[in-house]
Amino acid sequence: MGKCVVVCAGEPCRLDKLPGFSVGEGDFVICADGGLDFALAHGLPVHLVVGDFDSSACTQGQAKALGLPVYEVPSEKDDTDTMLAVKLGLERGYREFALLCALGGRLDHTLANLCALAYLKGQGASGWLYGRNEQVTLLENETLELPAARFYGQGDTPAMLSVFAYTEACRGVTLEKVKYPLQNYTLTQRFPLGVSNELAGESARVTAGQGQLLVMLVQEEKRN
Amino acid sequence: MGKCVVVCAGEPCRLDKLPGFSVGEGDFVICADGGLDFALAHGLPVHLVVGDFDSSACTQGQAKALGLPVYEVPSEKDDTDTMLAVKLGLERGYREFALLCALGGRLDHTLANLCALAYLKGQGASGWLYGRNEQVTLLENETLELPAARFYGQGDTPAMLSVFAYTEACRGVTLEKVKYPLQNYTLTQRFPLGVSNELAGESARVTAGQGQLLVMLVQEEKRN
Question: What angle do CA A180, A186, A189 make, to 5 degrees?
């Protein structure tokens, strides 16, 4: 089974700069409202469109005329379009998620998308959020190996690696093969000790014990 | 006693659009490294500069030549420049903080600044983060009244009000005088139920019980 790709309406990510990311045969692509514009512009397959078309340049009629399956939702609802897309992907059995254009737009939407990572984890699934210069995932009682390619995907300079406790504390945080290693450390939400680390080898290894840990790669973009 | 203003190096905020914000006689302004550029460009008083001058256009020598008090820090340290500025403000007795240009730059710095709000709360202090289009604070066992002026400060359209659990759960969340009220609700980090609310009166009232609650006002900017 492939992964579920949710295309959000945040700052457009650069598909050619997403290390290791591609849309394959078995993948299921859901556009969360305004994300449809990005998907159409970049030639992504579209398997489902979710939303009330309040943030897309495309109207519901146009989407239907294009033959796109539309999951209609009322404009006043408890779920954000992204959360609804995530739930629909889970219902279809997907356990691996990639949320494109999920960061860097409105800060409230960015934080809501961090919630989506925690929601996925609670459902036994996992996900990555991709922004223009950022990649974010969430760990709980597990180890993640981050190969060097992930640090070099989105720009000229290597990404900085940052980890944040997402629950009040995350115990057993271990960072290996990085400039500032940590060993079985209890990271809290009250102190950003895990900011701005650097790769120091072929791959970095991040372990989270009890609690949840956000893992973030951020590259500085050279803008002319 | 006035407040402590920490000028950070994120996306520049618009001083003329910060509702109710001004730098008064009793205020103490600390520039966190690159924040010095913003403070000098906008004629803010500078009472202390913190950092290793790795992100400021100004060199340490220039800062000293301008007669600015510089708190020197090593470039490899556990504190971010902003956290160090916050600690120095607390040491001087300030309990009310405003962090300017604290959002909208690198996402890791933005999240680290959310940690700073939680750190302040743990020290019996409180703070607001200001970005170009965002204002964020953190509540714990308290009620905040948000007058309409705060919703209209930074742009043409009224701000959206969002609340997020910052601890795993925040109990007793009550939202009054808003379009989608909540009464004594337990908000969790796994579901962004508190996104995109709207003012529905002269002021909105937000109450957080046990746990911590991020309160965020975000305006959509009309860019031409």
Answer: 95
What's the DSSP call for residue A93? Answer: T
Contact A107 B104 (CB under 8 A): yes
Residues, chain B: 224
Q: What DSSP letter does each residue of B16-45 carry, written as one string?
A: GGSTT----TT-EEEEETTHHHHHHHTT--
pLDDT digits (tens, 9 = 90+) for B108-157: 999 999 999 999 999 999 999 999 999 999 999 999 999 998 998 766 68
Structure tokens at A101: 């254009």
Which residue's structure tokens are 């990639």? A98
- Residue B144 to residues A102, B138, B182: CA-CA distances in angstroms? 30, 10, 14
Q: Strand, helix or coil at B164?
A: strand
Torsion of the alpha carbons at A136, A141, A143 and A149, rounded to the nearest 10: -10
Does the distance separating the beta carbons of A191 and B108 come in below 8 Å? no
The number of beta carbons lying within 10 Å of the beta carbon of residue A172 is 17
Q: Could B106 and A78 be called an inter-chain contact, meaning their C-beta atoms sit closer than 8 Å?
A: no
Neighbour tally for A16: CB within 10 Å: 9
Q: Chain A: which residues have CB within 8 Å of chain B?
A: 76, 78, 80, 83, 103-104, 106-112, 115-116, 118-119, 122, 131, 134, 136, 160, 162, 164, 166-168, 180, 189-193, 195-196, 212, 214, 216, 218, 220
Interface predicted TM-score of the whole assembly (ipTM), two decimals: 0.92
Strands A70-72 and B203-208: unpaired
| Nearest-angstrom CA–CA distance, B85 and B47 | 11
Share of chain A above pLDDT 70, in %: 97
Yes or no: say if A8 and A89 are a contact pair by the CB < 8 Å rule: no
HSE-up (13 A, CA, CB side) for residue B217: 30
Verify whether the Cβ–Cβ distance B193 to A164 is below 8 Å: no
User: Tell me, what DSSP letter sits at residue B159?
Assistant: P
Do β-strands A213-218 and A160-165 pair in parallel, antiparallel, or remain unpaired? Answer: antiparallel
Average pLDDT of chain A?
92
Position A194 scores a pLDDT of 92
Enumerate the β-bridge partners of residue B4: B28, B97
**How far is it, in rounded angstroms, from Cα B40 to Cα A136?**
34
Number of other CB atoms surrounding residue A210 within 10 Å: 12
Nearest to A152 by CA among A11, A17, A13: A17
For the whole model, what pTM was predicted? 0.94
